[in-house]
Structure formats: structure tokens, C-alpha cells
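# step 3/5: fold
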Amino acid sequence: MPESTSSVLLPPGGQRVLVVQAHPDDAEHLCGGTIALLAREGKEVHYLLVTRGDKGSDDLHLPPEQLARIREQEQREAASVLGVQSVIFLEGYSDGEVEPCLQLRREIALVIRQLRPDVVFTFDPWRKDEVHPDHRAVGICTVDAIACARGLWYYPEQLHDGITPHAVRQIYYFATDRPNHWVDIGTVVEQKAAALRCHASQTSRKDILQWIREKGIVAGAEHKFKIAEAFHHHAL
């Protein structure tokens, strides 16, 4: 049964949230309002990024290495606007070249064990017609990492210095075509817009606030929310 409550997290809820994304600005575009609301509620929100978005420009005078540095800084600024407590970047993954592999699964599992989130937000890897390979790869590796992070004999070399297996309680998939939970972001649209403006290398839109409202109206229309973000929620 679809959930159209105004609450951010469904039962059993949770205090610590991890958002796993492929590129800087993914979270701000896809769940920035929800992140702002979680931070307002006093939740502990952390970002994990697989790449630094080094292919996100066609400017011949802006090489990938320089763009990666710019986008990392933009992401940290945007996260601060939303109230995110930490931003972690993995090493060695290039924009557009992320594959669903054991190494990535292992690295995400380690971060889950280190941060011990109750809730994980990530891409829906089963979304029909998802064309970006990084989105698909990050989504599926995150799901696989959640399964592995709770098991004693998965990557036992990680289990030292206080690191132990950890079981995530809930997953919220963004960029989904099978939503079953909607969050009313009407009170934080300006905060979401401010976060997106931090990604200056990626957008020159002057009407970004109006764009957020238009997207939010579409997402929330079916469930009578004026402005919303939509997710597929799965309790574990």
C-alpha cells in the first residue's frame, strides 16, 4: 500500500542516515529537500560519493582533474547548506566508468560498518530505462554491500579496531519509477535551491527555484502534496 504521510522516515525510523551517490549533485537534485528535513529533525546525515564527477563538463579548457577538484568543493559546500555532517569520497573511480564489481561492494560495505547507519538512501538500480551506468552500478553495489555488511564472514579483514558487522534497517531508493513513499518538501524548497546553486559548474539556471517547484508538483500531485520528493522504501 503506498505511503503518503508527511513524515520523512517510515517506521522503524532511525537516527543515522547514509546517502550513497555516484556524483556530486546527485543527492541535491534527487533528495535534497528530504535531506534538509532530516537534518532539521536532528538526524545525523552522511554522504558517500563514488566519483568526483570528473566528466561533468564539455569545456576543453577544464580538464577532468581540475573539474574533479572543483566539484568536490561544490559538493562539500552544498552538503553544508543542507546540514550534512560528513562527506566521504572513494578513491580511484572515474565518472562514467563505474562498474558493479566486488571491489566497490567491499568499499561501500566498509563505510557502512564504520558509520553504522540505520537508513541508507541510494539509486534504484532496477529503474526502467536508467541510462547512466554509474547510477545503476552504485545502486546495485550499495544493495549488495548492505547485505554483506551485516555478515561476519563477508570481508572479515575489515573487522578490527572496533569495526563489527552492521545491519541497515531501511533503504530509500531515489530516482525510482516505483515510488511508495512521498516526502512533502514545501518548507525547504529554498534551502534545496541554495544547495543546488553551490554546484555552479553544473548549472547556470536562473530559475532553479521554479524548476524545483515544477518537479515537486509533478512528484506530489497523485498524493495531494504541493511539492514532494518520491522514493521506493524497503524495510529490511
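# step 4/5: annotate
Confidence is low (pLDDT under 50) at residues 1-6.
# step 5/5: archive (pending)
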